[in-house]
Amino acid sequence: MSRTVFCVHLQQEAEGLDFQLYPGELGQRIFDTVSKQAWAQWQAKQTMLINEKKLNMMNVEHRQLLETEMVNFLFEGKDVVIDGYTPPAK
């Protein structure tokens, strides 16, 4: 059975995640207030960030950078800015 959350990123009711995908309190906050759609949008941004900045997930600083970007994107309404990346024209 799918669950519905009020997605803080989309600012609307949407299908919630099936389970907590991120550890700790932040993970619980994401589970409670971020939709599958918003999480998928973040995952695309995260992949671009990792590739563009050549991040290593074994590096604590790199993980912290990603977490900061994730919070900014999901909760603060800030888009991820990737140097040298131009989004395709709509």
TrEMBL record:
<keyword id="KW-0408">Iron</keyword>
<dbReference type="InterPro" id="IPR007457">
    <property type="entry name" value="Fe_traffick_prot_YggX"/>
</dbReference>
<dbReference type="InterPro" id="IPR036766">
    <property type="entry name" value="Fe_traffick_prot_YggX_sf"/>
</dbReference>
<comment type="function">
    <text>Could be a mediator in iron transactions between iron acquisition and iron-requiring processes, such as synthesis and/or repair of Fe-S clusters in biosynthetic enzymes. Necessary to maintain high levels of aconitase under oxidative stress.</text>
</comment>
<dbReference type="GO" id="GO:0005506">
    <property type="term" value="F:iron ion binding"/>
</dbReference>
<dbReference type="GO" id="GO:0005829">
    <property type="term" value="C:cytosol"/>
</dbReference>
<protein>
    <recommendedName>
        <fullName>Probable Fe(2+)-trafficking protein</fullName>
    </recommendedName>
</protein>
<dbReference type="GO" id="GO:0034599">
    <property type="term" value="P:cellular response to oxidative stress"/>
</dbReference>
<comment type="similarity">
    <text>Belongs to the Fe(2+)-trafficking protein family.</text>
</comment>
<dbReference type="Pfam" id="PF04362">
    <property type="entry name" value="Iron_traffic"/>
</dbReference>
